[in-house]
Each structure stands twice: as structure tokens, then as C-alpha cells.
Amino acid sequence: MEVARVGVLLLGLLEVHFSGAEDGNVTEIDWSKVRPIESFDHYWARLPPELQMPRRARLVTNGFAAVPGQFPYQVALLPEFLIGTGLCGGIVLTNFYILTAAHCVVQGVGVLATGGTAIMGAYDRSIAESEQQRIRFTKDGITYTAVTLRNDIATILLNAPMSFTVRVQPARLPTLSDTRTFAGLSGTVSGFGRTSDSSTGTSNFVRYASNPILSNNDCLTYWTPIYLGAENICMSGAGGRSPCFGDSGGPLTVSIVPQGRLLVGLVSFGDAAGCTVGIPSVYARITYFLQWILDNSDY
């Protein structure tokens, strides 16, 4: 049995400010300057000292390019802070609400993003595709749990409703009575983050990777119970396939016949030694937080 891992990688990126309307739709975004959020002290300040050792600069690694509309619930989230604008993933819940990781919208204790933009329906996020919907949100629209590795979840109320189209659809969530762990099923994670540990930028296009969902007992071979609990779900890192910086808050789904894809997790953290080292990635477990999601959205 391997010694429990202590290096944790929260999978966000920092981007520079962009121009856009305060309410409703946004058309122009400046993507020209991108740097990892882990180069900023506040990113590491929320982690305990033993998790701050490997401060390495690190999308979905060793994955595949998606086709337009393959993941209609995928959101590219740009939360704004005083020091810049971040890139994270998100998930379409309803016309007004999206779901993401708390660490994507919380800079520190009680310090929230001042606002931001959610991009739905994107295939290439770097251009304003006609199928895209870019909608603003404000600080007042953010609701989150205590920011710990065990409670890494938030909802965001948009300033205007999105329209459901072929390219924009809500994720399907489990029911409150669903007690499945989903262990053994093939999980799929998607996002716009980095494609390898050596890459210096994020992907303009949606990418995805699939690996088996692990039981929490199997995941505890790699992660200590201090960081992994009933609140979490894990996906194998076999083949170096995992989420990476820029994918935080994005979807982990499984295919359930005949319903289709079911949201079972959202990207929370991975091993700080790198995204392709084969260590299981860790997600907030949707069934655990489902009542919280219902209480803090109009789902």
C-alpha cells in the first residue's frame, strides 16, 4: 500500500482582466495573457503547510478533442479578482445557475470574486462563436460552502438567463434517493485546462478523458482520510489521464443507459507532483452535496 499523498493540486488558472458589459451578454474577452494561479501567494495560503511543498507550474491531460456540442453542460468560467481573472470549469444547472468549485470563486476567508463571466456553448472559447452565450455574474450571485478540500462546491446565479440550445443543455443530476457510489463505471472529465505538465498554456477547445471511477477505499491507497471523505469521489489516473490547471469546477460524468450522461462529480484537486503522474484525481461527490445544490439554486 502506497503512503498517502500529501501534495495537492487545485486546478485553476489566472487570466488577466477583460472588457465586457456588467449585465447580460459579453462579446469581447482578452485571452492574450495567461499565467498559473499557483504563482500567486493567495492560491497557496489556503492550503496547510504540508500541501505547499511542490509548487510546480502544471486541461485534461492525455485526453481527446471533443466535437461541438458533445458536452453541452460544460462552462468556461472566468471569475474576476483584484489581481486578475481566473479560468475554471463549470456546469450548467438551470437557465440561471451554474455549479463550480468553491476555490474558483473564493480568494480567501470571506473574500469572493468581484464578479465574472460564464461562457456556455463554447467549442473554441478564444473566439466569439455564434453558438456561445457569454453572461456576466456578480459577487452577490455566489453561494459557497466553507472552503476546504472536503467542501469544494459553489453555485453562481447569472445576471441574465441562458437559453437552452443544441450546444447548451443542463447537466443531469442524480436523485436524492440515489445511493450508488459509481465505482467501476467509466468516468469522463472535460474542460479547457492544460493538456500536459509541460504545456505553458490552456486549451482553446474542449477536451475530455475517461478512466474508471474508484471506490473511496481504493482511492485511500493514494490519499489520506484527512483530505478524502464521503464528500469526495475519485477517478483513476491510469495512463496519465486526468484534469489539470484550468479544469477546476468542471464536470465528471458517467454514462447511464438509457438516461445518458449523469453528473457524479466536479473537479476539486489532484496531485501536486503533476497531472500526468497517474495519481487519482479527486472530485466533489454530487450525491453528497445534492440537497445543498437544491437549496442553493433553482434546480
Automatic annotation (TrEMBL):
Keyword Disulfide bond found: yes
PROSITE patterns cross-referenced by the UniProt entry: TRYPSIN_DOM (PS50240), TRYPSIN_HIS (PS00134), TRYPSIN_SER (PS00135)
One of the GO BP terms on file: proteolysis
One Pfam short name: Trypsin
Annotated GO MF terms: serine-type endopeptidase activity
Entry keywords, A to Z: Disulfide bond
Family note: Belongs to the peptidase S1 family. CLIP subfamily.
Protein name: Uncharacterized protein
Originating organism: Anopheles atroparvus (European mosquito)
